[in-house]
Amino acid sequence: MPSLTLRSLLASLAAVAFTGLLQPAHADPLKSETEVRALADKVMAQAGAGRTDDAYGLLSPYALVDIRAFEGARTNARSARMAIEALVGNSVGYEFIRSEKVGESLLKLTYIEKTERQAIPWMFIFYKAPAGWAVSSFSNGANVDALFER
After folding, report:
1. Average pLDDT of 34-42?
2. Residue 80 is inside which H or E element, if any?
């Protein structure tokens, strides 16, 4: 079980869960669920290598939220990274956990970032807008227990 300090650090990162549709995506929308999964895998490859800033950078063009909110979350993640690594060790990879689809318009992909001492859950929700799939929200945090709730 992660320490309270780790929980508080990761809780601040989990607060980056984006829900508002304030600004359209900046890149061509993803055309299929296969492209959605490929993007999430690329993001997690960066996260699993300890490159959180690069992971956020890959998501940014597909975010359906105000870019200022997204960049603020990215800055917070960058600042918290060294503190997180001091508590859980370096990133050593990632693992895909599951895919869940609700209707035809929402897709949730769940992963863990593997570190030397703790798994860090990452969850992405993609929305199928008329033009294609885009990131509606995502979060990462310390609540590993949530992976077992079904």
Report:
1. 97
2. helix 67-88
**Is the torsion defined by CA of 78, 82, 83, 87 positive or negative?**
positive
Look at residues 64, 125, 131 and name the one whose alpha carbon lies nearest to residue 100: 125
d(CA 80, CA 95): 22
d(C-alpha 28, C-alpha 35), whole Å: 11
Residue with tokens 């960049």: 71
> Tens of pLDDT along 100-119?
999 999 999 999 999 999 99
Q: CA angle, 143 as apex, 12 and 64 as ends, to 5°?
A: 55
Cα–Cα nearest to 132, from 36, 17, 18, 23: 36
Exposed, middle or buried by CB within 10 Å (0-12, 13-18, 19+), for 6?
Answer: buried
Taking alpha carbons only, the member of 59, 61, 33, 79 closest to residue 122 is 59
